[in-house]
Structures are given as structure tokens and as C-alpha cells.
From TrEMBL:
Biased composition regions of type Basic residues, renumbered to the chain: 138-157
UniProt xrefs under Gene3D superfamilies: Leucine-rich Repeat Variant
GO annotation terms (biological process): cell division; meiotic chromosome condensation; mitotic chromosome condensation
Superkingdom: Eukaryota
Domain Condensin complex subunit 1 C-terminal residue range list: 887-1025
GO cellular component: condensed chromosome, centromeric region; condensin complex; nucleus
Localisation: Nucleus
Designated name of the protein: Condensin complex subunit 1 C-terminal domain-containing protein
Pfam families registered for this protein in UniProt: Cnd1
Region (Disordered), start-end ranges: 137-178, 1166-1203
Membrane-traversing stretches: none
InterPro entries for the chain: ARM-like, ARM-type_fold, CND1/NCAPD3, Cnd1_C
GO MF annotations in UniProt: histone binding
Species of origin: Mugilogobius chulae
Length: 1220
């Protein structure tokens, strides 16, 4: 009978009915060891009670100990430990008192003896949260600054929840909490272990079936205990004694197992309640259980939180394995709520997707198919975070093996393959309204090709079937071209029915999908462009789409993207693709275009990445040449790239000079590198070697000049056999090393160059390079000009030594263009001072010589300003009347070059140059665009935005003029009265039906840059000026444009998929009021001015049976979209027109609604179909917190007839143009 003596330290018989301060102080001074002794004696007594018939309640009654007073004293200790300022002894006493109370409740007869109190049970079970010092992850409050103290405390913003105030109070108490030593923490933990053991014993002995709230609170207590301490190793969820459990979280999981036993109530409800609490452990969220309306907060992700999440998932798996089919409905609800309540953060989404995949693996094939079907609907949720998470879930499910259709409902078999997840869920997110979801979908599409599952790869290939077929066809054509000389054997077609499969739809769909992917690379959003790049690289890498230049050039173009991150991603993509396909010629060209252009990038990080790629792929692969050696794949690739830089990619080689300048500053070159490079000048790789030398020579002075001269001497005998590009690079190297050679060597090189130049057998590029080399050797005066064939040489020489050009030379060049060569030969003595030069005249010279004569004459003008006034008008006239394409093309180049040097003189002729943009020759148009683009920094060409800023009414003032001008309408007394020549009229006219789209493109551009007031003025001018003219069809088309509608009358609702914010409510109200006022004014003007004119025009057109009548009715249908119910009021003067218009509007509305249903696949749901939102039809539409939802299967609201009609009407209004 040690229990009764152990109770004496409480002195229950001496305590009065009402506690006073002396009694409380006396009780507070009790030693925790006495409580420990009391607990052990009561525990031993409960174990003996099972063997004997002796009852604790009888013992208490025999010793005159009141159960009520005992419970009151225990509750005093429990509540004393809840204080933040409680000492270690008070905390331990509180935990042990709670343990004693829980043991008492486990005894038979606790309810009959009035020892059970539900609130006290909850307090005792949760007392550890107050006694154990919590390491709060919340931010502490900052001390108010001095300035804020002076100005006074700010008013608390409205809308604060009571929970936030409680959190601030708790933070204040945490600041005052004292620190505990290691020994104190060990003592408190031991008491917590004792409490948890008592709670587990209570659940084994005492049924909470009649106390569901207490069972719910116990579930919450065990969930909190999961974070009590880190979980080490795996937890064994099988039945075992409490003494064998190693940690408190393990005991908490055991308590959850006890709670879902049938002893404590309905097993399905208990399991649903446990899963509801485990949901936030899996989501790594903290849910304040005392407030059902509060939002969950995200936990700081650390090892403890991740371990608890992992063990929670394993615990769910254990329960499913134990309960089998009865637990699967709860698992399905848990899966749906994980998806439904997931946040947007990447780390949480990745862990959540893994959890969904693990739990989905527990379901049967039918259950898995049902979840995939639900996921497909969930991927179209209104919240962006849900749609984003659905993509992550798809990727997690794709990592699992495909489900077998055996045992699955036949109606759900289509949801089992990976093909459905990729094509029907993942790929459809490419059209999402959110750019974030679009980018993530493209990124995951690229990752699908890296999966081990061949079914996933085939599913992606199925999305681009036409591209694959084209790739195979291209390969077959290539193979056929290589074997065309062989004899073909044709297969005999069996004489039977020929079955043809229609693949046009899939081919068309694949082409559309690929075109959509290419369009996404031009999306304004940076992340979408990066993700689309990654998707395209995956398709190219795995040969889903062919590696043609058309596709690869898109990657190269993205290396010049405005966004730095996209440029870096593009450089990474082209490098990755080059490593996979090093032998592809188009791939090599795309890599050179992308990387070489990035060397000149203004962003240093992009430049460094490009230099790193060039160094790794080209520079580091230069090894000494050996005839017996073998080039590995990387070395072969490097020389292939240099070969391309010497030929078809020569324009990119100029970027290499910048790279070599930077490398020289970094001391990247070594003597061994130069020796290795020069060793290739006599090898098959000579072209690339000389190209590199021509770029290196200007950047460094460490070259071995003797070795270069030896290579020069060996090349001289075979000068004519050397490739032109290589020869130019050699001459560039020889010219750049001139200052490092002695005079004797320089004379030898000059003699060699002059001997070659005097033969005049060199190509034009080599002549230019040779002359430039001679200039570097200081011997430009030795350049002698002889024949007309050498006009190019003359032009190059005149640029370098203008003083040596005589007047006779200029007249000779002029004579090539103006007079007959025979007449010029008959002239004896000095030539006349000037020749008739009204324009270039035809003569016996070929077009090629005349075109080079223009270039030579232009170069003379560049160095002799007195020639510009004489020849400039001739050049301008040749642009208009010349018939030779090459001559006019060179005139454009020369005039633009002259404009850079003599801007004031040539500025007057800029319209003549610009007129070549409409030249018949595509070459002239292309070169004109290039030259004018280069002139932007020299000529005062202002953009439309700058002009519009200086003159805001520029577009609106000339809008009516444009209608008459573009239609070449001259009958109006005020408009289109410009003095123009016939050539200018023919080149600028947009008259006719074939140019209608061009005219309206300009109209839209002008209207987009007009304000509402300007649009209103344009409408009035059209009514007063144009409607009475012969341009009625054009006018009605302009009035039907959506761009002419006043912006104030357009609805500015929230974007689809986004919930309106309360802070924008005031702005929305103001816009609604503004729209109402403008609409009333607009309506009044329309009735008073436009309607009478429209009625009279209609009667007139009907009498003449004009085809313009259909344009008038089309305009009326557009204009009356917002006044459908007021047609009779508007057209009261013509009841027949009102009836016709009402009929046309109704017919158009029905037709568009049917098209909407067919195109958008909107399925009409019967009116009597119940919806989850029917109960909330009268509630205002406002965002709700996540946890306000009931823990049940969330179902998306099915569309009803009324919502579909509203959607259709809104869609029609957005498509049609509202005028007036």
C-alpha cells in the first residue's frame, strides 16, 4: 500500500476548498521526486489491480481522500507549468502531475468517480508544448526606431486576425523565457517521455469512442510530437512494447496507430482524421489547430522536417498495407489534397510530387487511373500553383513503370499509359495563361526524353510525327543521292486491296506543335524562352526533329537574345548539341554563329562564357601536326570549325580578333601553341591554321617570325594553287609582321608582291589584301594602274594614297561609265576637262566592269570632296532610271558611304536611297536595308516613338489623309493633294483589294497609338468627311476595327486564372464609373449623328443594289454588340432596319456560340446537375484560405448552361470590334 503514503506530500485533507497564496506557495515547493514516487506507486498499483480486485477508488474512499480535491490539486500543478516563466521544477511537476492524471483515467471507474474531465485531458496531453522550451523560427520583433517613437505609434491596419495578435504575444513571452542547461533539458525530456507513455497506456485501456473531440486533440498532440526531436534511422511501425521504442516521434506514430483502432470509434473516420493531420506534415506546413479558419504557414525546411515528412509517408504506406482496401479511399483524398494545397515554391513542389508518386503507387490500377483522370482536370485549375504542381506530379509519375491494364475498368484503361500523362496533361500546359507554367511544361518535356522509359520517348515523338517523318524522308533522300549511280531494284506490289491510312491530321498536328514551340522562343517572358530552348535541344538531341539549318538557326539566334540568362542558356544548348552531333555541318555552322557573335556581347559574363567555349572547342585542341599521327574527335571538330570559318562562315571570323585580343591580355598564348599552329600551315589544315595566325598576329608579338617566313617561301612557287581565302589570310599575316622584319627581308617580300600584282591574274580579294600588305610595308607608291580590269586595284589604292590620283585617272574612270570606248580611243592628247555626264550611258564595257567602275568612282569621291557635287546627282538619277542591277546596287553602297563622310551633302538624297526598298531586285532591297541600318548613327533618322513623343497628335491628324492617300482617291477637294511623279505614285500606292491587308495593318498601327479623345475625333471626321465619299467599303471596314473602340469602354477585368485583389477595388469602381459616363456620351453622339446618316445610306445603297450594303450591315453588327437590347431605340426611324439588325445579331450570336463549343470542346452540362458551388451561389466571389476547405475529395465545378452563355457572350465581345 505505497500509493496512500505517496499521496501524503500533497496533504489533500489540509487544503481548503478555496486555494489561497500560502497554499499555492506551499504546493509549488514540492520536490519533483515526490511526484515521481507517486507515479511509480500508482503505476504498480494499476498493474496489481488487474490481478486483484482491490480498487484505487475504494482505497481513496477508505482514507477519506476526495477524488475531486485530488484532481483539483493535479490540475493546479498542470496549469502552473503552462507559464512561460515557470521554473524547471514547476515544468517537471506539471508533466508528472499530468502523467498521474492520465494513469487515474486509465483505471476502471474513472468516469463513475467523476475523475474524467475532457478539457483537463486535453490540457494534460498538450502540456508538454508549454513545458518543453520551443526553438521558435519566427522573427523577433524589431525595436522601434527613435524617429518612429517621436512620431508616435502607427495605427494598426484593419483586417488583422486575432491569431496574429496571439503570435505577437507569444513572441513577447519567448523573449522573456529563460535559458535551460543540458541537465535541465534531460530532466524535462524524461518527464515528457513519462507523459507520452501514460497517454499511450490510456489509449490502450480507455476508449475515446464517446469523446470524439478528445480523440481529435490527441491526434494533434501526436502530430506535434513528430517534430519533438530528430528521427534517427527507420521507424518500426509493427506492434512492440513502449520500452523498446527509441524516440518520442516513434512513440507518437504508435499513438496514431492506437487512435485508428475500432476501440476509439469508426475506423474510417479516425483514419481520415489522422490523414488530415499528416497532410501538413507531408506538405511541410504548420497548421494552428485552435483556429480552423487560419491559413497554414510554411516550415523552414531542415533535416528534422524532411525526416518527419519521410516517416509520415512511410507510416501512411504501413497503414495501407495493414488495412488494405479500406484505406484506399482515404489515400485518394490525401493525394488530392496534397495537390490542392501545394504552394508555388520549387522546393516544396519537388518534395510534394515525390510524395504523391509514392502514395499513388499504393493504389490499384483502377485507383491509379481515377487519380490520373482527376489530375488531368486539376491541371486546368484556376490557381497557377495547382497547374504548376500538376506538371511536377506528371514527371514524378513518369519515373514509375507503366501500370498493367489487367484488372482495370475498361473505361479507365486510357489513363494508365505514360502517353496520356505526356500528351494530355503535360503538353497541354504549353498553352497555359501563366508564363511560369508554360516554361515549366517545356522544361519537363525536355526531361521526358532523358527518362529511361521508352514509352515516354515515343509519346514525345508522337507529338511531332510530321517532323519525324520529314527527318526520315530527308535521310532517305540523302541516302538515295549517295547511291544514285547504283542499279535500283523495285519491289513488286501484290495484286490485292491497297489499304491507305489517313495521317494528314496527325502530321498537321505535329507541325502545329513544333511551330508553337518555335513561337515560344520569341515569347516576351524570359523563362519561357529558356524552357523552349531546352525543349528544342532535347528534340534535336534525340532526333525527334531533324537537325536542319532552319531549326538550328533558331538556337543560334537566341545567342543574341536581349536577356542575359537566355543568351547563357543558348550558349549552353549549342555547346551541348555540338558535343552530341560533332559531325553535323549545320550544327557546326550554328555553333559558330552563336558563340562567335557572343564574343562581342556587352555583358561580360556572356562574353566570358563564349570565350570559354571557343577555348575549349578550338584553341585547346591545337596540337603539333604529325603525318603519322591521328586526330581524335575533338581535334577533328576543331579543324572542321576553322575550315568553316575560312569558307561559308567567313563573316564570323572577324569576331575572333576580339577573342584573341582578350586572350593576349590573359597571357593565353605560349611558344608551344604557336609552333603547333604553324606546323599545320603545310598540312591539310592549312586554311584554318593561316586563319588563326591572321587573328593572332595583330594581338601578340610572341610569334616565331622565322618559321612564318619559311612557310611564306615554300608557298610562293605554288601561289596560284593556294585557296583565295587562305591567300588573303597569308597576306594579312605577312603585312602585320612587316614592322618586325629587317629591310632586306622587307624588300624581298615587296618584290614578290609586286611581281604578283603586275601579272593582274589575282582575284579581287587577293588584290585588296596584297595592296594593304604593300601599304604596311610603306611602298604604296609602287602600285601601278594599267587597264580597266584593274579598276578594283585603283579604287583600293586611291583610298590609301589619294595624293597620287591625277585628274586624268578620274576622267578615265568616268569614261568607263559615260562614253563609248572607241570614241575615247580616238581622242588625241589631253582629255577634255569634263565629259557630258547627264547619266551613265551604255557602252561596250560589260556590266561587271561598269559596276566596279562605280565602286572605283565612289572611292575617288571619298578622298576628293570636290568630286561629290558633280557625281552625286548622277548617282541619284542612276538609282531611278538605271537598268543594270549590279550597277544600281553598287550605287546604293557608294551613296551610303558618301553619306557617312559628307552627311550634309548626301542627306538630301536619302529619299532616293530609301525608294530602293521597293526595288524589283531582291538583292538591292536587301542591301538597301543593311546600308540604311548602318546609317542610323550618321543620318538624322528619328523613330516613330520619338516623333510621337514630340507630336502626340501626329497619327490622329493624318489618319483621314491616309484613307484617301492609300486608296489613291483624288476627287476630294482637301485630301491627297500631294505633288507626285508617276514613279512615286506607282511605288507608294496601296490601292486595290490585293493591298487591303497592308492598308488595314497601317490603320491598326495608327489607332493603337491614339488616345480616346483622338479616336473620338477620328470617328467624327469619318462621319463628316468619308462616309459621303466613294470609299464606303473601306470606311465601314475601318469603323469595324477593334482598335478604334474607345479604351474607356473596354472592360478591364481580372486576367483569367487570377483572383481580383481587394486593393484594386477602388480602381475598378472608378473605371466602371468612367465607362458609364463615356458610354452615355458615346451613345448620344451615335444616335444623333451617325444613325441618321446610316439610315439614309442604307436606303440609297438598297436602291442602287450596291455590294457595299453587306459591309454596312457588318459594321452595324459590330457597332451594336454593346447595345443589343436597344436596337429598336437606336433605329426608331427605320423599323425594318431595326428588325433586320436584331435578326442578324441573334443569328451571329448563335453561330459564334456553336463555333465556340466546337473549337473549345465545351460540353454542356444539364441544368439539374448538382455542383459543389451551389451552396455558395449567393456568396461574394473572393479568395478563400486553403484550409477553409472540408477535407474531402475536391471536385472542380462543372460548367452550367448559364455560365457557358455568359462565357460565349464575353468571348464574342472580345472578338468583335466595338465602334461608337
Amino acid at each position: 500500500m505505497e500509493f496512500i503514503p505517496a499521496l501524503r506530500f500533497l496533504r489533500l485533507n489540509e487544503i481548503p476548498k478555496t486555494f489561497d497564496d500560502p497554499v499555492e506557495e506551499e504546493l509549488s515547493a514540492i520536490n519533483p521526486k515526490d511526484f515521481k514516487k507517486l507515479y511509480q506507486s500508482l503505476l504498480a498499483l494499476t498493474q496489481e489491480e488487474a490481478k486483484t480486485e482491490q480498487s484505487v477508488w475504494v482505497m481513496l474512499q477508505e482514507n477519506s481522500i476526495s477524488v475531486k480535491r485530488l484532481v483539483a490539486v493535479l490540475s493546479f500543478f498542470v496549469f502552473a507549468g503552462k507559464s512561460r516563466n515557470a521554473s524547471v521544477a514547476q515544468r517537471v511537476n506539471a508533466l508528472q502531475a499530468a502523467s498521474v492524471y492520465l494513469l487515474l483515467l486509465g483505471l476502471p471507474g474513472s468516469i463513475a468517480n467523476k475523475a474524467f474531465h475532457g478539457d483537463l485531458l486535453d490540457t494534460c496531453a498538450d502540456i508538454w508544448t508549454h513545458c518543453w522550451p520551443q526553438e521558435s523560427g519566427k522573427k523577433r520583433k524589431k525595436e522601434p526606431s527613435k524617429c518612429s517613437q517621436k512620431k508616435g505609434k502607427r495605427a494598426k491596419p484593419r483586417g488583422k486576425d486575432v491569431d496574429e495578435e496571439e503570435e505577437m504575444e507569444e513572441e513577447d513571452e519567448e523573449d522573456a523565457a529563460e535559458h535551460f542547461s543540458g541537465r535541465d533539458l534531460v530532466e524535462i525530456r524524461s518527464a515528457v517521455v513519462l507523459l507520452v507513455e501514460s497517454l499511450l497506456n490510456l489509449l490502450r485501456l480507455f476508449s475515446l469512442k464517446d469523446f470524439p473531440q478528445n480523440a481529435k486533440n490527441c491526434t494533434q498532440v501526436f502530430i506535434k510530437l513528430l517534430y519533438f526531436e530528430p528521427i534517427i534511422g527507420e521507424i518500426n511501425f509493427t506492434e512492440q512494447s513502449i520500452s523498446q521504442m527509441k524516440s518520442i516521434p516513434e512513440m507518437a506514430f504508435h499513438g496514431l496507430q492506437l487512435l485508428y483502432s475500432p476501440k476509439h470509434g469508426d475506423q474510417e473516420k479516425s483514419l481520415l482524421q489522422i490523414f488530415h493531420r499528416l497532410l501538413y506534415v507531408i506538405l511541410m506546413m504548420n497548421h494552428r489547430s485552435h483556429s480552423s479558419s487560419s491559413k497554414p504557414t510554411l516550415l523552414m525546411v531542415n533535416q528534422s522536417v524532411l525526416a518527419a515528412r519521410s516517416q509520415a509517408i512511410h507510416f501512411v504506406c504501413h497503414m495501407v498495407n495493414e488495412l488494405k482496401e479500406s484505406a484506399l479511399p482515404c489515400v485518394r483524398i490525401l493525394l488530392q489534397h496534397i495537390c490542392f494545397q501545394m504552394v508555388e515554391k520549387n522546393e516544396f513542389r519537388s518534395h510534394g510530387a515525390q510524395a504523391v508518386a509514392m502514395l499513388a503507387a499504393l493504389t490499384s490500377s483502377s485507383g491509379y487511373a481515377l487519380f490520373v483522370k482527376w489530375l488531368s482536370n486539376f491541371s486546368q485549375h484556376s490557381k497557377m500553383a495547382g497547374r504548376l504542381f500538376s506538371v511536377d506530379v506528371v514527371m514524378a509519375l513518369l519515373e514509375q513503370p507503366e501500370r498493367s491494364p489487367e484488372g482495370c475498368d475498361p473505361d479507365l484503361v486510357d489513363y494508365l499509359p505514360h502517353k496520356y500523362l505526356i500528351q494530355e496533361v503535360l503538353f497541354k500546359r504549353r498553352m497555359d495563361v501563366s508564363s511560369t507554367v508554360q516554361g515549366h511544361a517545356f522544361t519537363c518535356l525536355a526531361q521526358c526524353l532523358e527518362l529511361r522509359s521508352m514509352n515516354a520517348t515515343r509519346a514525345v515523338q508522337g507529338l511531332f510525327t510530321t517532323i519525324v517523318s520529314q527527318s526520315e524522308l530527308h535521310a532517305q533522300q540523302t541516302e538515295g543521292s549517295l547511291t544514285s549511280h547504283q542499279t535500283h531494284t523495285y519491289r513488286t506490289l501484290p495484286f490485292r486491296t491497297v489499304e491507305l491510312s489517313n495521317t494528314d491530321s496527325s502530321d498537321c498536328e505535329g507541325k502545329v506543335n513544333f511551330e508553337h514551340l518555335l513561337r515560344r522562343m520569341k515569347q516576351p517572358n524570359t523563362n519561357v524562352r529558356k524552357s523552349a530552348l531546352q525543349a528544342l535541344v532535347g528534340l534535336l538531341k534525340h532526333n525527334v526533329v531533324p537537325s536542319t539549318w532552319e531549326n538550328l538557326s533558331v538556337l543560334a539566334a537566341r545567342c543574341r537574345d536581349p536577356a542575359v540568362s537566355v543568351k547563357k542558356k543558348a550558349l549552353q544548348c549549342v555547346g551541348e548539341l555540338l558535343s552530341v552531333k560533332p559531325g553535323c555541318s549545320d550544327m557546326q555552322k550554328a555553333w559558330l554563329e552563336g558563340v562567335c557573335s557572343a564574343v562581342m556581347d556587352s555583358e561580360s559574363t556572356v562574353q566570358e562564357k563564349a570565350l570559354e567555349a571557343l577555348d575549349e572547342v578550338i584553341l585547346s585542341q591545337i596540337k603539333p601536326f604529325s603525318e603519322k599521327g591521328f586526330l581524335d574527335m575533338n581535334q577533328r571538330l576543331a579543324w572542321d570549325l576553322l575550315h568553316r570559318l575560312s569558307h561559308d562562315c567567313h563573316k564570323f571570323s572577324r569576331y575572333m580578333s576580339k577573342a584573341f585580343d582578350i586572350w593576349d591580355k590573359q597571357n593565353r598564348y605560349t611558344q608551344s601553341f604557336f609552333k603547333a599552329l604553324i606546323s599545320h600551315t603545310e598540312s591539310p589544315n592549312a586554311e584554318g591554321a593561316w586563319l588563326l595566325l591572321s587573328k593572332v598576329v595583330t594581338s601578340t608579338s610572341k610569334l616565331p617570325y622565322e618559321t612564318i617566313l619559311d612557310a611564306w617561301d615554300k608557298m610562293m612557287p605554288n601561289w596560284n594553287e593556294v585557296n583565295t581565302k587562305t591567300l588573303c589570310n597569308v597576306l594579312c599575316v605577312i603585312g602585320d609582321i612587316a614592322s618586325h622584319l629587317n629591310p632586306d627581308t622587307q624588300d624581298l617580300i615587296i618584290r614578290d608582291l609586286m611581281s604578283q600584282l603586275k601579272t593582274f591574274s589575282l582575284s579581287l580579294d587577293v588584290i585588296s589584301a596584297a595592296v594593304e600588305a604593300l601599304v604596311q610595308y610603306g611602298r604604296s607608291e609602287d602600285v601601278k594602274l594599267t587597264q580597266v580590269k584593274h579598276l578594283h586595284t585603283l579604287g583600293v589604292a586611291s583610298v590609301n594614297c589619294p595624293a597620287k590620283i591625277s585628274k586624268r585617272t578620274i576622267l578615265l574612270v568616268e569614261s568607263v561609265l559615260t562614253t563609248n570606248s572607241d570614241t575615247l580611243a580616238d581622242v588625241q592628247g589631253d582629255l577634255p576637262a569634263s565629259l557630258p555626264l547627264s547619266q551613265f550611258r551604255a557602252n561596250s564595257f560589260s556590266t561587271k566592269i561598269r559596276s566596279h567602275g562605280v565602286l572605283a568612282l565612289g572611292k575617288l569621291c571619298l578622298q576628293h570632296d570636290e568630286l561629290v557635287p558633280k557625281y552625286l546627282p548622277v548617282f541619284a538619277r542612276e538609282l531611278e532610271e538605271g537598268t543594270e542591277v549590279s550597277v544600281r546596287n553598287n550605287v546604293v553602297v557608294i551613296m551610303c558611304d558618301l553619306c557617312m563622310r559628307y552627311t550634309n551633302s548626301v542627306d538630301y538624297y536619302i529619299p532616293n536611297i530609301s525608294a530602293r526598298l521597293q526595288d524589283k531586285s531582291a538583292t538591292i532591297r536587301e542591301n538597301t536595308v543593311i546600308m540604311l541600318t548602318n546609317l542610323l548613327q550618321y543620318v538624322r533618322v528619328l523613330s516613330a516613338h520619338v516623333l510621337l513623343k514630340k507630336n502626340p497628335e501626329m497619327f490622329s491628324q493624318h489618319f483621314i489623309e491616309c484613307i484617301f492617300y492609300f486608296n489613291s482617291y483624288k476627287q476630294h477637294k482637301s485630301y491627297n493633294k500631294f505633288p507626285q511623279s508617276d514613279i512615286e505614285k506607282n511605288s507608294s500606292t496601296l490601292k486595290g483589294a490585293q493591298n487591303r491587308e497592308k492598308r488595314f495593318h497601317i490603320y491598326r498601327f495608327l489607332l493603337e497609338h491614339c488616345t480616346d479623345a483622338q479616336r473620338f475625333s477620328i470617328l467624327n471626321k469619318i462621319n463628316q468627311t468619308v462616309l459621303g465619299s466613294e470609299l464606303l467599303s473601306e470606311t465601314f471596314g475601318v469603323l469595324s476595327l477593334k482598335e478604334i473602340k474607345l479604351q474607356a469602354m473596354k472592360s478591364s477585368g481580372a486576367t483569367a486564372g487570377e483572383e481580383p485583389e481587394e486593393e484594386n477595388m477602388a480602381k475598378a469602381v472608378l473605371e466602371a464609373a468612367q465607362k458609364k459616363v463615356v458610354s452615355q456620351i458615346h451613345k448620344k453622339v451615335f444616335i444623333e449623328h451617325t444613325v441618321p446618316l446610316i439610315i439614309s445610306l442604307k436606303h440609297c445603297l438598297e436602291q442602287k443594289r450596291s455590294s457595299v450594303l453587306k459591309d454596312l450591315m457588318a459594321y452595324l453588327k459590330v457597332a451594336m454588340q454593346d447595345y443589343k437590347n436597344e436596337v429598336k431605340e437606336f433605329f426608331a426611324g427605320d423599323e425594318q432596319l431595326a428588325s433586320e439588325l436584331e435578326f442578324a445579331l441573334n443569328e451571329a450570336e448563335e453561330q459564334r456560340m456553336m463555333e465556340m463549343i466546337e473549337n473549345c470542346s465545351i460540353q454542356i452540362v444539364p441544368k439539374d446537375t448538382p455542383t459543389p458551388q451551389s451552396a455558395e451561389a449567393g456568396s461574394p466571389a473572393r479568395p478563400r484560405p486553403v484550409l477553409s476547405l472540408r477535407f474531402a475529395t475536391p471536385q472542380p465545378p462543372p460548367p452550367n448552361r448559364l455560365s457557358q452563355l455568359t462565357l460565349t457572350n464575353r468571348y464574342q465581345r472580345s472578338l468583335s470590334s466595338q465602334v461608337l
